[in-house]
């Protein structure tokens, strides 16, 4: 599986070794002084921020659904699943906000490790089929949203 076979055909797959390698190559281009093209995060904060949704899918970070997710989760999943890139001004989930300044090299290495796991373990890497905000997720939805989120933030930092 190298790309989606639905309306998302232009997207690569985090599970595909080639698509996964492309993401990692982009992460590897980042340096401690890479500046964002929009937003307030530093490159180190972005690297740690991008780990959080992956940890949710791996069952390493457990978030509890709230009333907003119950009321708007499915609608937001549908909106985020549309083919256009994420908007630059989307709100960040409180648990995904990184307010400290992480060590750049550690954050970079950990993100690369987490991304590689998608290609190494395939669908078995996803331990949490129910997203805390979006509800039940297919492997294709996990794949698409992980790719799209990573791509969004890598573009934010020009890679």
Helices and strands, with pairings:
Layout: H1 17-28, H2 43-57, H3 67-80, H4 104-121, E1 130-131, E2 135-136, H5 139-156
Helix pairs in contact: 1-4, 2-4, 2-5
Mean pLDDT across residues: 87
Taking pLDDT < 50 over at least 5 consecutive residues as the criterion, the unreliable ranges are 1-9
Tally the helices: 5
Shape: globular
DSSP E strands, number = 2
What order do the helices and strands follow?
HHHHEEH
Radius of gyration: 15 Å
Assembly state of the chains shown: single chain
The figure for the number of domains is 1
Helix content percent band: 40-55%
Terminal residue distance: 24 Å
Q: What can you tell me about this protein's structure?
A:
The chain has one domain. The chain has 5 helices and 2 strands. The protein has helices at 17-28, 43-57, 67-80, 104-121, 139-156, and strands at 130-131, 135-136. It has a two-stranded antiparallel sheet. β1 (130-131) and β2 (135-136) form a beta hairpin. The longest helix has 18 residues, at 104-121. The model is unreliable at 1-9 (pLDDT under 50).
